[in-house]
């Protein structure tokens, strides 16, 4: 062991400068806070969006649009998809459980059936919502629709 190879123990030294510990430290006096103003004083908390008294950006920019809190987001299934599913799995009744097992939805989403495509099979369909054309097309083939 030599004096020139000695090092302090791991974690025993502090990398940051200690401020506000007198003029001898070189960081006494204002303690890196500068002179006067809100930031120099104790208890200062930065307000989100505060721009030094200037009108903040979120108040300067014009507002537009509307977010409807009652809007429902549906997972959409078309009649062509139902027809394909009925042919592949030989089904007469299609509900949420069948759509989950086929990998279309996770079961937590609301399902709406739309009238895109052609339906030939007589099906009993359960869903959260139906478009008017889908409802008519399912009933025209002799099927039945049930809203859950």
Give the helix/strand layout.
Blueprint: H1 57-60, E1 74-78, H2 79-89, E2 93-94, H3 96-101, E3 110-114, E4 124-127, E5 129-130, H4 132-140, E6 144-147
Parallel strand pairs: 1-3, 2-4, 3-5, 4-6
Radius of gyration: 34 Å
Separation of the first and last Cα atoms: 81 Å
Percent strand = 5-15%
Spatial ordering of strands, largest sheet: 1-3-5
Helix content: 10-25%
Q: What does the average pLDDT come to?
A: 91
Q: How many alpha or pi helices?
A: 4
Shape type: elongated
The poorly predicted ranges are none
Helix/strand/pairing category: alpha/beta
**Main β-sheet, in a few words?**
3 strands, parallel
Count of β-strands: 6
Run of helices and strands: HEHEHEEEHE
């Amino acid at each position: 062991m030599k004096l020139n190879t000695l090092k302090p123990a791991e974690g025993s030294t502090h990398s940051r400068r200690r401020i506000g510990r007198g003029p001898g430290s070189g960081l006494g006096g204002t303690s890196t806070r500068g002179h006067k103003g809100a930031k120099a004083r104790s208890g200062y908390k930065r307000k989100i969006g505060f721009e030094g008294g200037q009108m903040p950006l979120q108040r300067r920019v014009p507002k537009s649009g509307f977010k409807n809190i009652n809007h429902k987001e549906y997972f959409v299934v078309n009649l062509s998809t139902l027809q394909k599913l009925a042919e592949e799995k030989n089904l007469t009744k299609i509900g949420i459980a069948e759509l989950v097992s086929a990998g279309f939805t996770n079961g937590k989403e609301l399902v709406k059936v739309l009238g895109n495509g052609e339906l030939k099979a007589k099906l009993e369909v359960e869903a959260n919502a139906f478009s008017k054309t889908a409802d008519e097309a399912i009933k025209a083939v002799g099927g039945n629709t049930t809203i859950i």
